[in-house]
Amino acid sequence: MGPTPGLCFPRKMAAFRWFTAGESHGAELIAVVEGVPAGLELRVEHLDEDLARRQRGYGRGGRMKIEQDRAIIVAGVRGGQTLGSPIAVRIENRDHASWLDRMSTAPFESPPERVTRPRPGHADLPGSLKYDRADVRDVLERASARETAARVALGAISRVFLSALGVDVFAHVVRIGEVEASPPAGLEVVRDRARASEMACADPDAERRMRDAIAEAAHDKDTLGGVFEVVATGVPVGLGSHVQWDRRLDGQLAHALMSIQAIKGVEIGLGFEAARRRGSATHDAIVRDERLGLTRSSNGAGGLEGGISNGMPIVCRAAMKPISTLRRPLPSIDLETGAASLAAFERSDICAVPAASVVGEAMVCLALTRAALEKLGGDSMTETSRNLRGYLAQAAARLTIPASEPTIDE
Ligand code: EPS
Q1: What residue owns the CA closest to ligand 1's atom 8?
Q2: 17 domain residue, yes or no
Q3: Which of 58, 113, 160, 173 gets the highest tally of CB atoms within 10 A of its CB?
């Protein structure tokens, strides 16, 4: 019997696919993306800018002082333009130099000390059992959020592609622990303020309180999580589809965000708040608009209806748990001796929510790029852009209903 279509295998070979490799203290991170159309203007600075933003944020640990993440594009780009071939990116781990004895790919001359006390909350215990590893390091190195640097590099490529289609993606931190931000009205103000803020927060007063909360957690040898929101503007109506479960764009975005290390919850639009409201106070009335033809008076749906983008800004939120590597560790069991002991600690961040918000932008960019290419196709930017223009003209023609046009019922 052949494979069950749609359950185990994609509907068809994805036009846009990507992959990362690399251990936290290995030689480097590798990222490969295939399916970016030819003829997209791409500079390494686009990647480096997002990599630098991922390293920011009050509450980061010692590792960020060691690394200065820079992308090295080694394939798929020539003379500043994409070729349509796979794009390969390398990011060196500067810290690798201090880990040669423990992270060499060749057999060890003398076996390094093992990590045997798994950290509650990390992949350590389930990963060691699943992969049958006596040294928890064999799992934690890949499970580490260091891998997100590779995602951000690919996300930056996606961002450049999306911006050629008129799509802009930004994120802002709306909560750290108990401190909640009150972002100002207007998406552009939120975007600009968040970009200028070390905490990626659009509310300067909340940002001060967030820093205080992080300082307090650091003093207590503890960690803090939070919530960030990712917004995508200019997304054309019609990405994703209602016709099959795995083609729903809301599901793809939730998957993309939930796949980020330490993310435990994802909301779209009103999210869980909608469960408290009545339908009349939840859904977005359809109204006429001079410029757009039809628009919505609100955006509780977060830009998605029936798993399809509806032309309004896409708004997603992700909840990050507090980092599980604790300076004052929780009880664990030593896997070598079976004795009760405290979980391992080397170093960690106190809070990495601002960094995770940049990773969230990257994941949303990647998910939207995939959906856009599925809708529009195109091996070159000329073709993709032409397809977008043609499709938008077709959609606009359907939206310009004369105000006085009688309906059948009349
Ligand atoms: C990270 C690198 C890691 C951690 C952090 C994220 O470096 P190291 O393990 O050398 O300290 O700082 O990852 C975690 C806290 C975690 O639990 O995975 C990075 O580059 O973002």
Answers
A1: 63
A2: no
A3: 173
| Beta carbon of 197 within 6 Å of any ligand 1 atom | no
Phi then psi for residue 148, to 5 deg, are -65, -20
* CA-355 nearest atom, ligand 1: 21
Greatest mean pLDDT range, 27-36, 289-298, 392-401: 27-36
Q: Which atom of ligand 1 is nearest to the CA of 261?
A: 18
Residue type, 389: R
218, part of any domain: yes
- Choosing from 146, 223, 347, 353 the residue with most ligand 1 atoms within 8 A of its CB, the one to mutate for a pocket test is 146
The phi and psi torsions of 283 (rounded to 5 degrees) equal -85, 160
Q: Residue whose CA is closest, atom 5 of ligand 1? A: 145
Q: Is residue 51 a contact partner of residue 149, using CB atoms and an 8 Å limit?
A: yes
Q: Is the CB of 145 under 6 A from ligand 1?
A: yes
Q: In terms of C-beta density within 10 A (0-12 exposed, 13-18 middle, 19 or more buried), how is residue 276 classed? A: exposed
CB neighbour list of residue 57: distance below 8 Å, 6 or more residues apart: 198, 199, 200, 351, 352, 353, 354, 355
> Is pLDDT of 2 > 70?
no
| CATH number, domain containing residue 287 | 3.60.150.10
Q: Angle of helix 353-376 relative to helix 148-164, nearest 10 degrees?
A: 50
CA of 148 from ligand 1 middle (Å) equals 10
Position 403 scores a pLDDT of: 56
Check if 291 has its Cβ closer than 6 Å to any atom of ligand 1.
no
Instruction: Give the per-residue pLDDT at 347.
Output: 86
DSSP 36-86: PPBT-B--HHHHHHHHHHHT--TT--THHHH----EEEEESEETTEE-SSP
Residue whose pair of structure tokens reads 């820093």 in the numeric block? 211
Task: Please give the tally of structural domains in the chain.
Answer: 1
Beta bridge partners of 179: 176
What's the chain's average pLDDT?
A: 94
Give the integer Cα–Cα distance in Å for 229 and 112.
42
- Residue 367 in domain: yes
Predicted pLDDT at 28? 98
> What is the residue with the minimal CA distance to atom 10 of ligand 1?
63
Structure-block tokens of residue 241: 């589809």
Task: Identify whether 183 is part of a domain.
Answer: yes
Alpha carbon nearest to ligand 1 atom 2, residue: 146
Name the residue range of residue 154's domain. Answer: 114-398
